[in-house]
Structure formats: C-alpha cells, structure tokens
C-alpha cells in the first residue's frame, strides 16, 4: 500500500516558508509582529494543505483499489494496513481543527500567547508545534495535573 509511505505527519510542515527570502522568526524582533504572523499563517496553511492532499489521495486509493487478495493472510494484512491508514487520517482530521483554531487565534491577535498564563510562547516551540496553545511550563503543569487526576 503506497499511501503508508507518503504519510503526512507533524514533521512534514517543517519546510522553509514560501516567502522566498528564507525568513525565520527571531527573538531579536518584536514578538508576533506582522512578518512573524504571516510566517506562521503560511506555515499553518501549508501544513493543512498537505494533510488535505494526503487525505484525498487515501480516499482515491480506497475507491480505486478494493481489497482483492485471495489469500486470507494477505487480505488480513491489507485490512490492517487500511485500518492504520484510516486511523491516521482521523487523527489528521482532528489536527486540521487545531490548525483552523490556530488560524483563528492569528486573526484575533491571540496567536503565540499562552492560553493559561498569557505569556508569549517561545518561537522555538511555535516553530516545532505551530498549533501550541501553552508555554512549555504550562503544558508540563497541565500534563502533571492530568496524570494525577487519572491516578485518583
């Protein structure tokens, strides 16, 4: 199954922005200035586009290539591969809603700021995870509290 090799994951958007000058946000400039906002908007839109294209390819392949294996073992293997592929697409569908939420935060001027503390999220974190809504510290606290809640 070819689509498993072409899978779009969280790292697939880590390509330079298409603005041609190789711009990367720097801590030496004002935080979330218009150029940084445009950089992250472009990054988010390219990521979303890549996910949607991959989903279209998966759907096309599902329609064109039904399971035809005569051997039960081969058929089971193919069904497992498709099941994994469809779970991946479902995770990416949820990721698209997070990308859309990040784009809304950009439009509202809230992008790049922690939803818990209101502090700026580091550019390195936003570069690595442009849908981040919390600083590393706030995220760690959240995860520790979540772990404690699960153990109770």
Could you write a compact summary of the structure shown?
The protein has helices spanning 34-64, 72-108, 123-128, 136-151. It is mostly helical and 152 residues long.
Helices and strands: which structural class? mainly alpha
Elements, N to C (H/E) = HHHH
As a percent range, the share of helical residues equals 55-70%
Could you tell me the strand content as a percent range?
under 5%
> Mean pLDDT, nearest integer?
83
Beta strands, count: 0
What can be said about the biggest beta sheet? none
Count of alpha and pi helical runs: 4
Description:
With 152 residues, the protein is mostly helical. The chain has helices at residues 34-64, 72-108, 123-128, 136-151. The longest helix has 37 residues, at 72-108. The chain is flat.
Quickly list its features.
flat; mainly alpha; disordered N terminus; 152 residues; 0% strand
Helices and strands, with pairings:
Layout: H1 34-64, H2 72-108, H3 123-128, H4 136-151
Helix pairs in contact: 1-2
């Amino acid at each position: 199954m070819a689509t498993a090799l072409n899978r779009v994951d969280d790292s697939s958007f880590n390509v330079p922005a298409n603005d041609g000058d190789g711009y990367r946000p720097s801590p030496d400039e004002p935080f979330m200035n218009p150029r940084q906002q445009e950089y992250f908007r472009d990054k988010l839109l390219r990521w979303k586009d890549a996910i949607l294209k991959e989903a279209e390819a998966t759907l096309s392949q599902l329609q064109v290539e039904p399971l035809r294996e005569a051997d039960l073992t081969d058929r089971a293997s193919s069904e497992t591969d498709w099941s994994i592929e469809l779970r991946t697409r479902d995770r990416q569908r949820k990721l698209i809603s997070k990308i859309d939420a990040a784009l809304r935060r950009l439009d509202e001027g809230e992008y790049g700021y922690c939803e818990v503390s209101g502090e700026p999220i580091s550019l390195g974190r936003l570069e690595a995870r442009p849908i981040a809504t919390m600083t590393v510290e706030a995220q760690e606290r959240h995860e520790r509290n979540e772990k404690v809640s699960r153990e109770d």
